[in-house]
Amino acid sequence: MKIKGFFVILVLVVIIAFFVYFIGSGEKKIIENEIGSFSSAKEKLTKTNMSSLKRAVDSYAAEKGSLPDTLQDMRLDIPITTGKLDAWGTEIKYEKLSGVEFRLTSAGSDRTFGTDDDIIVR
Question: Any idea what the CATH number is for the domain that residue 65 is in?
Answer without folding.
Answer: 3.30.700.10
